[in-house]
Amino acid sequence: MPIISRNCFISSTIGAMAAVPLRAYAQTRPAPPLVRVNVNPARVIRTVVGLRPFRRYGFVLRAEAFGNKTIVHNYGHGGGGFSLSWGCATLAADLLAARSPGRAAVIGCGVIGLSTARVLQDRGWDVSIYASSVPPNTTSNIAGAQWTPTVVFASQDATSEFLETFRRAARIANRAFQLMAGPTYGVLWIDNYALKHAATERDELDYAVSAGIEDLYQDIETIDPATTPFAVPMVRRFTTMLIEPNTYLPAVMRDFLLRGGKIEVRTFATLRQVHDLAEHVVFNCTGLGARALCNDGELVPVRGQLTVLEPQADVDYIYLANGLYMFPRNDGIVLGGTFDRGDWSLAVDRAQQARILTEQAAIYRSS
């Protein structure tokens, strides 16, 4: 069960954000011209696999004494690592808000570790990162990284206390990413098209309502499907942010180093090895690695395989369709649609790749 303090990083900047009803026009609107993605196997430039660190009860935010050290756990964010990063980093740092800044260690150099390290630096801590992998070789580099914190918890298992923590983290992180929009960090606002074949299918907006963060989704409208190239009868459009991991992660790491941070490549086989560190405060941001380090049997992989096509500069929107998704990034058109719980394999499944390409091509009406 997460433990959090009442203080929030950048709370004075953000201010109170009152929830507003999910907005949707009763009258359907036409879509702007949308260029079709050229889903052609000949355009595939790479296929990658990553493992989301999922806990059905939600992520862990907890501080505990560990011998003469204090360990703050910040792991298990499922498919919402990027989306929640600044919020969970803030709430993790809040756990030591009553303590005077000193030296701190962060284990992990993915998006959670880097965000946590930067929040600590802004609060006056001298921070070192210890990690077995650093960008561009982290799981975070593989992420699709649209701002939508999904596959984070099982709705039937989440407590009211956790949901309140989740909402706070989502709101803090959403505001933080807004302030980073632009080419420096690779964060841009982009239209999303949520596609449904039937009203019973859930989309991102339905999830936002059930999770209580509908106020973070902007400019929602119902779209006349006949004005789109999509082969579905129901379309909703909304605006959110897309993050380019291979621009964003090096930029945040550069910020960390410019502020005096240090990075050491190091592997921890057991949590007991943190006793070898000089720092007396340690933040555990190891993602799926926390399963072994912390003996957390609730932490399981949710495998995701992404096939990336050559970039297509005229594609300037995202679509989300019953588990399938397309993100247009500078490093390629990202096609996804796998959520394989309990699967530890990092091997590319060629049959799965072929299925994704076929299903993604079928998103569009025959021309």
Please describe what this structure looks like.
This protein is α/β, with parallel strands linked by helices and 367 residues long. The protein has a single domain, classed as 2-Layer Sandwich (D-Amino Acid Oxidase, Chain A, domain 2). The protein is 24% helix and 27% strand. It is built from 8 helices and 15 strands. The chain has helices spanning 11-14, 81-94, 111-122, 160-178, 204-211, 245-258, 290-293, 350-361, and strands at residues 44-55, 60-66, 69-75, 103-107, 126-131, 187-196, 218-223, 234-243, 262-265, 281-284, 299-309, 317-321, 324-329, 332-336, 340-341. The strands form 2 sheets. Strands 1, 6, 7, 8, 11, 12, 13, 14 and 15 form a 9-stranded mixed beta sheet that branches. It has a 6-stranded mixed beta sheet with strand order 2-3-10-4-5-9, covered by helices on one side. Helix 2 (81-94) packs parallel to helix 3 and helix 2 (81-94) packs across helix 4 (160-178). It starts with 10 loop residues before the first helix and ends in a 6-residue tail after the last helix.
Structural features:
globular; 367 residues; alpha/beta; 6-stranded mixed beta sheet; 9-stranded mixed beta sheet; disordered N terminus; D-Amino Acid Oxidase, Chain A, domain 2; 15 strands
> What is the tally of helical segments?
8
Helix/strand structural class: alpha/beta
Number of domain units:
1
Annotated CATH topology: D-Amino Acid Oxidase, Chain A, domain 2
Q: CATH homologous superfamily?
A: D-Amino Acid Oxidase, subunit A, domain 2
